[in-house]
UniProtKB/TrEMBL annotation:
Species in which this protein is naturally found: Bacteriovorax stolpii (Bdellovibrio stolpii)
PROSITE patterns per UniProt: SAM_OMT_II
Keyword Transmembrane: no
UniProt name for this protein: O-methyltransferase C-terminal domain-containing protein
A UniProt-annotated Pfam family: Methyltransf_2
Gene Ontology MF terms: O-methyltransferase activity
Database matches in PANTHER family: O-METHYLTRANSFERASE CICE, PUTATIVE (AFU_ORTHOLOGUE AFUA_4G14580)-RELATED
Signal peptide location: none
UniProt key word Transferase: yes
Keyword field: Methyltransferase, S-adenosyl-L-methionine, Transferase
The O-methyltransferase C-terminal domain, residue ranges: 160-308
Amino acid sequence: MTKNKELETYFSLMLASGSTALYNFVQENELFKGYKVGVSFSAKDFADKHQYKMIPAEVLLNSLVSLGLLEKKNDQYELASVMELLSGNYKNLSAEYWAHLPTLLKTGTPFKRMDAVADSEKEYQVQVKSLEWMMTPCAELMVEMLAKTRADIKTKKDLEVLDVGAGSGVWGFNFLYQNKDAKATLADWPAVLVVAKATAERKGIKDRVTTIEGNFHESVWPEDKFHYATLGNVTHILTAEANKTLFKKIYKAMKPGGELVILDAYGEVPEGELARALYQMGLTIRTIQGRVFQPNELKPWLEEAGFKTFEFHSLNVVPRSMGMLVAKK
Ligand SMILES: C[S@@+](CC[C@H](N)C(=O)[O-])C[C@H]1O[C@@H](n2cnc3c(N)ncnc32)[C@H](O)[C@@H]1O
């Protein structure tokens, strides 16, 4: 290891440790309980409220600004909007998953079984709203990159998109945001699709969205209908066999020349390397056999299903871990 690499490793660990310590201190002590986005406060207000000494209180607030948890304008602070999101499901940054690591290592038993068909509806019902938030930049970039070489995406009047394991609908909906005549069909569990339906209503695209509700291994799909299909963050919760069967089902649903876009944490942007490694660790903690299959593993299965040509792109937006494999019928 070179000296600079040693220092980089040391400093990145120190940054991660310091950031987590500050964040956990804020959440555990509910420092901003009752504070609202858009309502500003001074360091003195904050120090008085908590009976803190002024200097360390101000240093703390400035560190939280650097962390992106607060914003500062003219010596006034206010909550960054991410703090609202961090008051929900993801408040403890999945600490309970990481706490399970020693047990996983000793027993091999995961913390959750999010890849078990019987558990997935209940689990994803609560997860997909946050996933929508996390995947939105990637979904926007996916459509933008595809549209560069495919004029039909933005202009085709009867463009039909199938979103399999749609969750919030983030992948399919982004086609609709770019083409006012496009239609999307979402396949997922009914309780999960409640989230997507609410988004469709809010975004005014309800009339262009159809759902196929239930177990996507069993539900009946139209054949020869779709110009594009998306499969986002799904292959890593399925076994190799289940993926192969699903690819065959998607192939049948697509028009000749139609393209399937498979999105997963297999991008090649170097800055996403740690995110990808931790993602796989997280998958091992929360699934029985979850594994990010790489494009070179997926391709033979896609070929077996009938797909002929392939394209791969990394998605260089946060979290910088994602990539898209495009397979053409
Ligand atoms: C990791 S989430 C991905 C959601 C969305 N595609 C995204 O990337 O944000 C996996 C999705 O697949 C759905 N799913 C998993 N197994 C399923 C099954 N057997 N039938 C229907 N949906 C299923 C889950 O409900 C969940 O919405």
